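With this grant's support, we have settled on a layout for protein records. A representative record follows, to show the layout.
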Amino acid sequence: MTHNPALLAVALLWTGVASPVLAQGVNGHGSMVGMEMGSTKSDAKDDASTREFKAADTAMMKDMDIPYIGDPDVDFYAHMIPHHKGAVAMARVALKHARDPATRAMAKKIIADQVTEISDMEAWLKRHGR
């Protein structure tokens, strides 16, 4: 089994970012209003890919800021759909700007997998009257 250092770095970063968010949800404070999102603010020095990644992050976080209803099945899908859509948006930015063949291949795989999963999750919600 080979390890992708870039993927590991993203996983570690996500773990560090996700922990406070998960802790808020566990405590019943699912809203992310007021959370520091400084890393997603555009800076005049940002290159095009950084601006586009930050825009995708901001949109994803906004779309994920929906209330939990206390139904773990519905809550899971309702929050994972915008999360997956954010992943697709970021993968599209990577396809537009990345040069490394492995990065581009991963972005294509993420788009293919996540689009299918989004469709499956939306269908589940529809079947369950949501």
Observations:
- Confidence is low (pLDDT under 50) at residues 7-37.
- The two ends are 40 Å apart (CA to CA).
- The CA atoms of residues 37 and 86 lie 15 Å apart.
